[in-house]
Amino acid sequence: MNSKGARAHPRWRGRVLWIAVGLMLAITAFWGNALSAPPSMGGKDVFRFDTFGNETFWTDTLRLHEVIATAVDPTTALSVGLKVDADALPPGILKTADLKSPATTVALIKLNAVVGVKGTVVSKDGKDVLTRVGITCALCHSTVDDSVMPGIGHRLDGRPNLSLNPGAIIALSPALDAGKKAVYNSWGPGKYDPRFNQDGKNGPVVIPPAFGLAGVRLATYTGDGDITYWNNYVAVTQMGGHGSFKEPRLGIAVEAKGEDLVKPRLPALRQYQHSLAKPAPAAGSFDAVAARRGQAVFAGAGKCAGCHPGKAFTDDKLHAPAETGMDPSYAERTATKKYRATPLRALWQHAPYFHDGKAASLAAVVDHYDTTLALKLSAEQKKDLVEYLKSI
User: Has residue 10 got a pLDDT over 80?
Assistant: First the structure.
């Protein structure tokens, strides 16, 4: 039918009008959903850059953006363990940057160069102003290789930032009273208490590595759940992300206020973390001949393989604290009340050991179990076992 014929028939004009309206509604719905839906993020981006909306906690509640802008210069930031991603820096910028000025820290945040810290920086009267700040998973579970200088280098995702002092950073908040500041300042580098804001008790644990978890069923010191369970717990209850988390065993029930920004990200986050292989020990960092002897001790007289079998070096079982001579106080605050057999991976990389860091070296770990389990290992067996643990 030609245009003239169409104009001659009112019923056809009505059909054309309804088709046009339908198309407009479909297009509007498509673009509306596209604009309102969160952008697709790969697991690496979630791990490194997603705050899950926790700026409302770190900015609106703790007001850390004020502290950063006025009192945290790069030298101070590095001293409390914050890391700078050298790959995010323009060439030569560090040669002219004032590392004693908080404005430089704001500039680094604007460049997205401070590992685990996300900020909104706007220009006001010709000056960069930090208006919002939040944190990501990478804050505690990434470090750098120090290739530029200590604290500045290429990212190493999955490695625990054991020089990070999260308690000291939180204690900078002007919103906290003296009592809470004292607790946070008591933790020290490399430790964090993921239960303190839930039960009010103080007992920090060592920040664990996030690599080598593929094939590991229980992801936490006390085996409360798998890696997704723990990511959800931390994102909501510790990072202050906008999401929901329920743990009836501990009476925790947090409902998302508005859109849940955590749950949709969890599958990709888990996939990325499972892709992070344990780092290999450096050449020459252990005695290979002694390590081979130590492997036999591990499987035999040391009785280690009973709880740490297979490629993951864990039986994925829960053990009462008394079984392994562990301090029960942290376990008692968790859902299982027990400790999981820790997967042994890249032990050379993340001393101190045990959940509370009470073993400063692998030799101290071996001595602890020799005493607790009455193994009666010889001095040579202990040395060989340490060399094997270095090689894992």
Answer: no
